[in-house]
Amino acid sequence: MLDFSVLNSSFVNPTWISAIYAFLLSFVLGTLLALVYVKTFRGLSYSLNFLHGLVLLPIVIAIAMQAIGDNVARGIGMIGALSLLRFRTNVKDPRDMFFIFASLAIGLASGVHAYGIAILGTACFVAALTVLHGSPFASGPQFDGLLRFNLPRSPEEQREVETILAGQCRHFALATIREVAQGERLDFSYQVRLKAQSTSADLVEQIGSRPSVRGLNFMNQESVIEV
Asked: In whole angstroms, what is the distance from residue 53 CA to residue 142 CA?
């Protein structure tokens, strides 16, 4: 039977059972964090190694905190050892960075036997993610795709294409425009949000039916694309 009296054990002089509790709690909360990351992920694919890192990082931090205790010399030695490592992984998504910090915080709280803070903090983090995941402004991308094509340098041609866009799209916005073919043609990029009854195939078919349109390309997107 588990002895929960060890939850009040000293961080300076931890017992074997309190250390086991710290490592188990780090593993459980890290696994929960990884599961929430998968459930709330909106991209096309996620890194399996990143998920493993979310589970393993709290355990590693808890081990370090248990080993350091309140010994300043140990802390300085740990910093020196970590300075020998070079972390070259670039975190491109700010959301991933927050998950890393949450994983670190779980390991720190578990390592210093602040089990209540670790559990309550993880619960608040998961609750906030759940609210954000289901909120209206996070329910989907602002645009469905990126439409690219080029036309002769003619305002009439552009207006006729935009008439088609108005019929097929709830909203569209001109993202970029540039000269091609030595200035004789213009290359357009539109971010579009399709109507409920419209599809990307219908839009491409209607615009592609115009003889002046060349280089037609429609790119689906899960999030706003930087052009």
From this structure: 31
Which residue ranges form the domains of the chain, and what is each CATH number?
A: 4-138 (no CATH), 145-220 (3.30.70.260)
- Rounded to two decimals, the pTM is 0.57
Q: What is the enclosing helix (H) or strand (E) of 177?
A: strand 169-180
Gap between the Cα atoms of 155 and 60, Å rounded:
62
Q: List pLDDT tens digits, range 212-222.
A: 888 888 887 65
Q: Which two tokens stand for residue 66?
A: 């248990």
> CA-CA distances (angstroms) from residue 53 to 111, 176, 189?
17, 39, 39
H-run or E-run covering 40: helix 16-40
The DSSP 8-state label assigned to residue 195 in this structure reads -
Please, what is the average pLDDT of the chain?
Answer: 79
* Cα–Cα distance, 111 to 121 (Å, whole number): 14
Question: Averaged over 3-30, what is the pLDDT?
Answer: 72
Q: How far is CA 20 from CA 2, 14, 31, 60, 101, in A?
A: 11, 10, 16, 13, 23
Burial, 60: exposed, middle or buried (Cβ in 10 Å; 0-12, 13-18, 19+)?
middle
| Mean pLDDT to the nearest integer, 160-178 | 87
Which of 147, 143, 179, 153 minimizes the C-alpha distance to 165? Answer: 147
The reported pLDDT for the residue numbered 208 is: 86
- pLDDT of 33 reads 92
